[in-house]
Give the backbone structure.
Amino acid sequence: MKKKEEVEIIGLGDILVGNPSAPVTVMEFVDYESEACEKALPIVKELMKEFGDKINFNFRNFPQTLVHQRAHKAAEAAVGAAQEGKLFEMYEILLKNRRHLGTVSLKNYAREAGVKSKSFLTDLINGIYGWHVQDDLKFGIDSGVTEAPTFFINGEKFVHRLTTKNLSEAIKAALKKRKLKKAA
């Protein structure tokens, strides 16, 4: 009997939303059931608009399952959507619907995000993206993340109060730093 061909899954660490060659990468560790992450969504969208091609985003999963029982499965759904290039669309839909993250809802959100896979629900139920969520979680813990959202700008942890102004200033500083490095 021939073994079914395995499809390689792309982890979120390898996915950048925005200009892949941008001088600044903003990494966000997200929990899709978190109210604080939902409140960060408009900030992320504003920064994307403000900086355009000068930045990209790397969204990583950090489900806090002790308080958010559905966050892990939602994170798996985000990885599934990312396989079809629909990570940001799914990120946005999940956060806007953070109180309704049942498995059937996740399938509907994936469809709304533009995911075409007929096996999405089956893959979600079978947990094929679970290890990728765990990899993000471990990476976050190893990087000093204790809560979501947590942001990093070009690898440096953002430690100020999360506001559009503060994050924007940190990005401007990172852009200036990059220009100085190029000039040297």
